[in-house]
Fold:
Amino acid sequence: MSVPGNKREGKFLSVFVCAVLAVCWALISVAQQNVDRPFRGVTHITRTESSPRNVVMHIVTIDLGQPGIRLKVSPPGGTRETVRETTLSFLQRERAQIAVNAHFFLPFPSTDLNAEVIGLAASEGKVYSQCERPAQSYAIVANAAAINFDRANRASVVTCGVETSGLWNTLAGSAQIITDGVVTVPAYRDSEHPSATLTANADYSNVRSWYDLPRARTAIGLTRNNDTLILFTVQAAAGGEASGMTVRDVANVLVKDYSAYNALNLDGGGSTSLAIDGKLITSGMREVASSLAIFAER
Structure:
């Protein structure tokens, strides 16, 4: 004999159990994290994930309106635009509390510590690099967007054509990967993407995008009102080309979990470096062309 009521109750129970399991799984996926507040207005999150790869992410959020917060991009110097140094050395020399690597740079690889940064760059009002069409366009878009911080720490995304006299501390990346809350990882020009911003070559195309390869990554973002700065780094496993995260993964995490409204992809791989309170948090010891320092109070 059929019992319709019991079937309905059984179906409801199954749906309920599935919903509970889904919520639990979502919580488990981000449960392995440590939250620290080392300075006023600064939160440092260490987050471990096992899917789709084993990764350790470091997310630093900075309240730009907090008294005592100050920022500085590496200054110009040397025979090109900057003199390369490790992010940790920059933090220690400036006596900053936090620092992260910034621009892509040329020449690379090179033993010459004199470097040219790619894209807009300014340090405390000294503009030393303009928008440009980089030598390689399989990863770096032409005239890439940048983030500028004025004297009062007011942040904004700036694009080429901006009046450079208004720049104070400015850094650019390879592309804007989040635009107005939407993931905007660039594509390669082909018959299906005639207006795309990247140029395909023998190694990279829409079939195998540079942005969709798991690597160590560095990104920088802002919340919707530009009042919170988000620094993101993920480290690749030693000797593991297939570890780390794709840029698309990074952008999705920033949007969904940290309310990023705009974000840039910065130099990654061996350049990925985050230093906090005098210590290197990631393993990046490469001498990079620029870093962003944040000064904060305890």
Notes: Residues 272 and 280 are 11 Å apart (CA to CA). The chain has two domains: 1-31, 33-295. The helical segments are 4-29, 87-94, 247-258.
